[in-house]
Amino acid sequence: MNTNKSIPIAKPITTEEELKTIEEVLKSGMLAQGKMVYEFEESFSDYIGVKNSIAVGNGTIALDVALKGLGIKQGDEVITTPFTFIATANSILYQNSKPVFADVDEKTFNLDPNDVLNKITGKTKAIIGVHLFGHPFDVKPIQEICDDHGLLLIEDCAQAHGAEYHGVKVGGFGTGCFSFYPTKNITTGEGGIITTNDKGLTELCRLLRNHGQSSKYYHTILGYNYRMTDIQAAIGIVQLKKLDEFNRKRIQNAEYLNSNIKLKGIVTPYKEKNVKHVYHQYVVTVEEDLIDRDNFIEYLTGKGIGCAVHYPIPIHRQPMYQDLGYRDENVNCPVAERLTKKVLSLPVHPALTDDNLKYISNIINNFEG
Asked: Which one, 77, 150, 184, 223, has least CB within 10 Å?
């Protein structure tokens, strides 16, 4: 029997430890970018295994600053996925550059390297790969494409804190961009961070986030107010210490659901060998000929199980992108189109109890359509 009124699809986990560190910051009087931000940056760099991290106000800003720092400009093309949150592509538009959409793999939902190759032109300057739902994209072939064609690699790691590809944490291959929005694997409320081994890029990004100011009231470039606060960073320092345990619980929850969801027509998430999938979302595929997804969502919601479709509309079909000319004749991403009609996210967050997991799997298995 379900003893819960509802099981949310996501639930940030904070404790007295976060409250205590916020109180310490408030008492210090240093609320904006200060020593806590720099401590968080150092801790995050150590965790990912990179030389430098640049903390900013949110994950979208991280992408924007990274692209600006890398010199992406008007007339450039950047290849990315249409099957993700819109911020990834919008960050390219912020540079007056053109997003070019490559299709995705049917099983991992991540960029298909073969289609990336098909989309390269003389104007292509970079590739933004997204480690979607916590599963790393296939870094090696994408990295090889970048090397062969002289392209920059940006990793959108907003959903993949602590995920690994062949034993290396994501964010350690190209220029990494993370988000700390409340639903992410760790949170700072809002917040983002850029990871890199490039000293010059680090210095430029730090200028860009703080009004182009190299010293007090001395501005060398056009910059922005994209800073992270010490309050955010203090929360991040505490959350980062918990990340591995949060991820361990997410993986454990996903493995339970994988083993116990038996409903015909529901395909549990795929995981490639040699990757660590950290299950930001637990995304099943609904076989349309066996189950009507809308009816299934209504059934789960009625039983108190939170669920959502990530993502119901591919980016190139969003109204603003249609207005920009992304029509059928110049965008060919059939796999992404199909996935938007089939995917469904179920709860997998660390706050789930054993009873929650049993209830979720039992309710699913009892669906009669």
From this structure: 150
Buried b (16+ CB within 10 A) or exposed e, 190-207: bbbbbbbeeeebbebbbb
The active-site residue, picked from 119, 184, 271, 276, is 184
CATH number of the domain within which 216 lies: 3.40.640.10
pLDDT in tens, 218-252: 999 999 999 999 999 999 999 999 999 999 999 99
Do 132 and 144 sit in the same domain of this protein?
yes
Whether residue 53 is contained in a domain is answered as: yes
Residues 108 and 81 in one domain: yes
Going by the DSSP 8-state scheme, the letter that residue 140 receives in this structure is H
Q: Which residue segment(s) compose the domain that 162 sits in?
A: 16-239
Contact 280, 185 (CB under 8 A): yes
User: How many Å apart are CA 128 and CA 151, to the nearest integer?
Assistant: 10
The CA distances from residue 363 to 250, 290, 300, in Å, are 20, 17, 8
Strand ordering across the sheet containing 175-179? 52-56, 192-196, 175-179, 152-156, 124-130, 77-80, 98-101
Reply yes or no on whether 107 is catalytic. Answer: no
Are 203 and 231 members of one domain? yes
- Res. 1: pLDDT tops 60: no
Cis peptide before 311 (omega within 30 of 0): yes
Structure tokens given for 47: 């965790």
User: Do β-strands 192-196 and 218-219 pair in parallel, antiparallel, or remain unpaired?
Assistant: unpaired
φ/ψ of 166, rounded to 5, equals: 50, 45
Residue 346 and residue 197 share a domain: no
pLDDT at 349: 98
Report pTM: 0.97
Check which CATH number belongs to the domain holding 298 and give it.
Answer: 3.90.1150.10
Each residue's pLDDT tens digit, 258-313: 999 999 999 999 999 999 999 999 999 999 999 999 999 999 999 999 999 999 99
Q: Which residue's entry shows tokens 């996925």?
A: 81
In this structure, the answer to whether residues 188 and 154 fall within a common structural domain is yes
CB 120 within 8 A of CB 79: yes
Which of 204, 239, 274 is the endpoint of a domain?
239
